[in-house]
């Protein structure tokens, strides 16, 4: 079963050395999971100061700087894994360094109906951020539970899948998935060596994360244009966050180490 592990924490609780150590540990876990056939994707997100939120109301775009939720602990990264069950997902979440300072929310991915299929997932570009190579952005889709009545949800889902195929044809698609409802979420924290597992989503907000699109585009303006086309932005909010590839962080860590 596939799960998305959402990494929440306060950005100011990590020193740069802490971040570098966390990244090294995270990359090692990714390598281990990949060898076991359990790793699908993972990446840290750039600071919430780089976030842009997009809503579409009455056909008009509403664009604001900053993250969707004004909370102390913000989403800082994600893992997508394929494991046997929830217990195995919890074991992996508890091994992640961010679980010791923040919270790891586990959300099962929602399987698509047999009549729908997404394009094949593409690899995240590992190009440095100082080139003209298109960048990767994640579009986090938030909405209130029940925002889509059952008779409207299926057409909206089909519309989103069709958009993914259009993006794929343009070389802009990386991956996407809807998530199972927040009631299916599990939160994991590790404090002083003890693990706490709590049912339910981490952020206590009316609008909860319902899915994501990972895209590769030239700039933020293109990401905003795509976010405005997603059906979910008409009933909720699309938060756009630039992806920081592991290779970028690894390169930064190496430079900083050599400078010492």
TrEMBL record:
Domain of life: Bacteria
InterPro entries, sorted: Dimeric_a/b-barrel, YCII
YCII-related domain span: 1-111, 137-244
Gene3D superfamilies: Dimeric alpha+beta barrel
Pfam family, one: YCII
SUPFAM superfamilies the record matches: Dimeric alpha+beta barrel (SSF54909)
Family that this chain belongs to: Belongs to the YciI family.
PANTHER family linked: BLL7171 PROTEIN, BLL7171 PROTEIN-RELATED
Protein name, UniProt field: YCII-related domain protein
Biological source species: Aureliella helgolandensis
Upper lineage: Bacteria, Pseudomonadati, Planctomycetota, Planctomycetia, Pirellulales
């Amino acid at each position: 079963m596939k799960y998305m592990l959402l990494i929440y924490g306060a950005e100011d609780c990590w020193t740069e050395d802490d971040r570098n150590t966390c990244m090294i540990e995270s990359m090692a876990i990714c390598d281990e999971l990949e060898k076991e056939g359990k790793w699908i994707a993972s990446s840290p997100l750039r600071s919430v100061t780089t976030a842009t939120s997009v809503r579409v109301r009455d056909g008009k775009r509403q664009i604001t700087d900053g993250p969707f939720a004004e909370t102390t602990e913000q989403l800082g990264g994600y893992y997508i894994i394929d494991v046997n069950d929830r217990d195995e997902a919890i074991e992996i979440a508890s091994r992640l360094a961010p679980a010791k300072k923040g919270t790891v929310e586990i959300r099962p991915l929602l399987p698509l109906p047999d009549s729908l299929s997404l394009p094949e997932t593409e690899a995240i570009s590992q190009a440095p951020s100082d080139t003209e190579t298109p960048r990767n952005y994640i579009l986090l889709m938030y909405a209130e539970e029940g925002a889509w009545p059952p008779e409207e949800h299926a057409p909206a889902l089909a519309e989103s899948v069709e958009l993914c195929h259009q993006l794929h044809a343009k070389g802009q698609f990386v991956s996407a998935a809807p998530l199972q409802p927040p009631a299916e979420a599990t939160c994991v924290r590790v404090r002083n060596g003890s693990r706490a597992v709590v049912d339910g989503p981490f952020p206590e907000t009316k609008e909860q994360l319902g899915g994501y699109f990972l895209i590769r585009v030239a700039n933020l303006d293109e990401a905003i244009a795509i976010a405005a086309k997603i059906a979910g932005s008409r009933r909720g909010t699309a938060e756009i966050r630039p992806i920081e590839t592991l290779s970028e962080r690894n390169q930064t860590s190496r430079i900083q180490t050599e400078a010492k």
